């Protein structure tokens, strides 16, 4: 016996769906690329069934489409895969054809093909959005992890192809940075392409934010406060602002970060959910500095495989930071961003173009924090010269800022 699970469209056409006995109705629908909210499911006697109901062997189920779109045509896009080619990666992109219909472009890549694709994507992103200006120095935040490490590899490959980049890689000092594996990886990657590699001393962050103790002591302490959910944002802002000060000391106003497609999509969703004005992608102006994201159109999976191919080693992964385990963190945004890319391959090309247009139209004006001197968007709030940014306000609240 088997489960009889039929999809019925709005004109009465039925299509059988694969269904595993014991699976929930929602699982059956999702496995067949049917959004559970697009159908009403009934069982014996036309009794409506909840999505959590488990399907039973030998029973019949009917999923009646209640939405007006052509679900059958859309489902066919996702279910048509090329034959087993033995390639390492399948690149997919959902696009509109000249006749207005959707199609799913698919290209199997072996590892060398994928490496060339990633490097070509980075080069095209730099050229299309003019991320690098001739003769203008640029600082790359290089942590030694897979994301910034992959960006170093891709930019290094462009340098080897003759692309002129005045690049300095910078790694933050942290505890035993000069002896750690991540620092060694960062140094080896920069040295591989003849790129200058500098260590940003821990005292610089302490000086910029006028802290009464090292930043590495502030962050764990914040975890014990009622603002623990803000610790990640404090970490990000202190890192960004310290990197700006370091870049300015080296005559650079352009900062490259290894944020990839998922990072930036998650940020966009976060901004939409909170009403926060985010700025452009893959080029974002913040005061006198330009932040560039050459990996904006490279998904994490491509980055992971690229790093493996370029280094011959599986990319190192660290456990999630402790402050990410709370209901207000970014984990769900990343989870959702991965699903966005899975169900809408190429969504970044749509979303980031819109973000770039919006950033150009907004003509953002920036204010200056009275403590760290960083530029920030006041997000529509009244601002008095000398006011502290949100991060410095949190630091001052717990008496980490000297003289306050």
From TrEMBL:
Gene3D superfamilies assigned to the protein according to its UniProt record, in alphabetical order: HUPs (3.40.50.620)
Q: Which InterPro entries does this one have? A: Rossmann-like_a/b/a_fold
SUPFAM superfamilies reported in the protein's UniProt record: Adenine nucleotide alpha hydrolases-like (SSF52402)
Name of the protein described by the UniProt record:
tRNA(Ile)-lysidine synthase TilS/MesJ
Organism per entry: Planobispora siamensis
Q: What is the lineage of its organism?
A: Bacteria, Bacillati, Actinomycetota, Actinomycetes, Streptosporangiales
């Amino acid at each position: 016996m088997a489960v009889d699970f039929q999809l019925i469209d709005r004109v009465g056409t039925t299509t059988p769906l694969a269904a595993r006995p014991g699976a929930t109705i929602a699982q059956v629908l999702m496995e067949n690329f049917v959004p559970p909210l697009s159908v009403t499911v009934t069982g014996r006697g036309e009794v409506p069934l909840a999505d959590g109901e488990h399907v039973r062997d030998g029973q019949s189920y009917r999923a009646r489409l209640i939405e007006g779109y052509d679900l059958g045509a859309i489902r066919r896009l996702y279910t048509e895969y090329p034959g087993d080619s033995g390639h390492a990666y399948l690149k997919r992109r959902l696009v509109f054809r000249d006749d207005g219909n959707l199609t799913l472009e698919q290209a199997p890549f072996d590892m060398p093909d994928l490496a060339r694709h990633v490097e070509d994507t980075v080069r095209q992103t730099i050229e299309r959005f003019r991320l690098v200006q001739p003769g203008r120095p640029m600082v790359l935040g290089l942590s030694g992890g897979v994301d910034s490490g992959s960006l170093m590899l891709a930019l290094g490959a462009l340098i080897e192809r003759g692309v002129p980049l005045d690049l300095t890689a910078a790694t933050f000092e942290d505890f035993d940075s000069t002896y750690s594996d991540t620092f060694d990886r960062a140094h080896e990657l920069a040295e591989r392409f003849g790129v200058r590699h500098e260590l940003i001393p821990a005292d610089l962050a302490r000086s910029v934010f006028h802290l009464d103790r090292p930043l590495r002591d502030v962050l764990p302490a914040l975890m014990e406060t009622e603002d623990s959910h803000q610790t990640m944002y404090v970490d990000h802002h202190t890192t960004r602002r310290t990197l700006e000060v370091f870049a300015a000391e080296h005559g650079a106003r352009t900062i490259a970060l290894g944020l990839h497609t998922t990072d930036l999509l998650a940020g966009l969703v976060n901004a939409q959910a909170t009403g926060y004005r985010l700025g452009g992608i893959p080029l974002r102006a913040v005061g006198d500095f330009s932040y560039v994201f050459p990996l904006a159109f490279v998904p994490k999976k491509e980055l992971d495989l690229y790093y493996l191919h370029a280094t011959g080693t599986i990319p190192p992964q660290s456990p999630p930071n402790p402050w990410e385990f709370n209901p207000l963190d970014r984990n769900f945004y990343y989870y959702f961003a991965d699903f966005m890319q899975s169900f809408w391959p190429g969504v970044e090309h749509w979303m980031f173009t819109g973000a770039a247009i919006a950033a150009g139209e907004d003509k953002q004006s920036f204010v200056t924090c009275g403590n760290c001197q960083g530029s920030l968007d006041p997000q529509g709030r009244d601002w008095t010269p000398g006011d502290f940014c949100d991060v410095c306000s949190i630091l001052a609240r717990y008496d980490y800022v000297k003289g306050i």
